[in-house]
Design a protein that fits this description.
Chain lengths: 173, 270
């Protein structure tokens, strides 16, 4: 497999992972591309599966740094929220955004290691590769993953409950 | 197996991440333990919840082709930069690199490259041949609604950016970018003055949010300065960077300065 084939094969997944982990489309693009640049720069060789794990690990570390850089920008955007479009989006779009917002909030409530483990498992990585990306022993990944999923599940439940309450409240008023 | 297997082992069992002997042991235990079966069910349920919740996180579909190009180009630039040694070689190579960039990435292509807040409004600039400089409000989703950006094309690779009346404590962020255009972002209300290869920004009394005074300079700039309150903060000589002013902190391609208090070099005016 040459570089172009490898890139076309792995980039979309890496980009998705970065977008989910960083919650920032610009960071996702920058980081996913930077990981590939480093792959070329350092002439990393190996099977596609190994290269894939390498890329995800590098991207995970880059996001850790990038997120700090962007924190200010996020704060700015939060303080100056982009105004919604004048025309109301259709219900299904609203609902989808709501679901996405809830998932995002639940994910953001976790610490970085939990988030990484959750998202890497979602991309189909083995415990060994996840362990390497977050810097723990392979043998503790099962415990950490179970804990992360439990925290995430609890957060989803709470956030869904809140939103339900809000809706009932809105309906009553 | 003495007692119940730990939750982590059950999780690994569920994920097919146990050795054959462990698998046999856990399976054997599960045959006669209702409690562990409940835990296993719960772990399966949590995995399903995580899967469906995470699937709701939509992501923008990437332009793979453009990304691949960008990666190849960036890797080539860095290779050349690493190869270039000494002044003369560095300069010659940089000129060559800059020239080839211009050919490859004419107007429009570079602007279409992702990763720059400029990309969505470069297209709206005057066509080539008209005044070198243009100012536009950055789009809201890219840089926050209270920012103004000015773009600048380098003249023979040279660039002169000056800020004045910048209050102490303000951070100034310089980012090295691809392409051959420089840009300056400052809070709305700042006064911009532009000329050939030159931008002067009077920040003055406008409210300055952290991170909103930003400079993007092409990594292939040959010569240039970024001055703040009349002190040189960053100097590019023959493509090499130096920082004669307050010491910056650097993360990747981002160089950050903080304007020191009055009385110190580069500090607040007056
Ligand atoms: Zn048991």
């Amino acid at each position: 497999m040459n570089f172009d084939e490898l890139f076309d094969d792995l980039y979309p997944g890496l980009h998705r992972y970065c977008a989910r982990l960083s919650a920032d489309a610009d960071v996702a693009e920058d980081v996913a591309q930077e990981a590939f640049v480093r792959l070329l720069e350092r002439k990393v060789q190996g099977e596609p599966a190994r290269l894939r794990a390498w890329l995800f690990k590098v991207a995970t570390h880059l996001i850790r740094d990038q997120v700090k850089i962007r924190e200010n920008r996020w704060r700015l955007l939060e303080e100056n929220p982009v105004l919604p479009h004048a025309h109301a989006p259709p219900d299904e779009v609203v609902e989808r955004r709501e679901r996405e917002g809830m998932a995002r909030r639940a994910l953001d409530s976790l610490d970085e290691r939990d988030r990484t483990l959750l998202l890497m498992r979602e991309e189909g990585f083995a415990y060994r590769e996840m362990a390497e990306a977050v810097g723990v022993q392979s043998t503790s990944v099962g415990t950490l993953l179970a804990r992360a999923r439990r925290r995430f599940g609890k957060a989803v439940e709470e956030i869904e409950g809140e939103s339900l309450k809000e809706r009932i409240h809105e309906g009553a008023s | 197996m003495k007692g119940h297997p730990e939750e982590g082992l059950l999780q690994a069992y569920l994920d097919g991440e146990v050795s054959e002997s462990e698998h046999v042991r856990v399976a054997g235990h599960l045959m006669g333990c209702a409690a562990c079966n409940r835990t296993l069910d719960e772990l399966g349920g949590l995995a399903a919840i995580a899967g469906s919740a995470l699937a709701a996180l939509e992501t923008r579909r990437p332009d793979v082709e453009a990304a691949r190009w960008r990666v190849r180009r960036e890797a080539a630039t860095r290779r050349r930069r690493a190869e270039a040694t000494g002044w003369g070689a560095g300069l010659r190579r940089r000129v060559a690199v800059a020239a080839s960039f211009f050919l490859l990435f004419g107007v429009g292509v570079a602007a279409a490259m992702p990763g720059s807040p400029l990309r969505s409004w470069w297209d709206a600039r005057e066509p080539a041949g008209s005044p070198v400089v243009s100012a536009a409000s950055a789009p809201e989703d890219a840089a926050g609604p209270t920012e103004v950006g000015v773009g600048l094309e380098l003249r023979d690779g040279a660039l002169d950016v000056a800020f004045s009346a910048v209050p102490a404590g303000v951070g100034i962020e310089v980012t090295l970018v691809d392409g051959d255009r420089a840009a300056v972002f400052a809070p709305e209300g700042a006064h911009f003055e532009t000329g050939s290869g030159r931008i002067h920004v009077e920040v003055g009394t406008v409210r300055v949010e952290a991170g909103s005074v930003r400079v993007e300079i092409p990594r292939n700039s040959i010569n240039g300065v970024v001055r703040v309150n009349e002190a040189i903060y960053l100097e590019v000589v023959a493509g090499d960077l130096s920082f004669p002013g307050p010491p910056p902190s650097t993360t990747g391609d981002v160089i950050r300065f903080e304007v020191p208090a009055a009385g110190t070099p580069g500090g607040t005016d007056g």
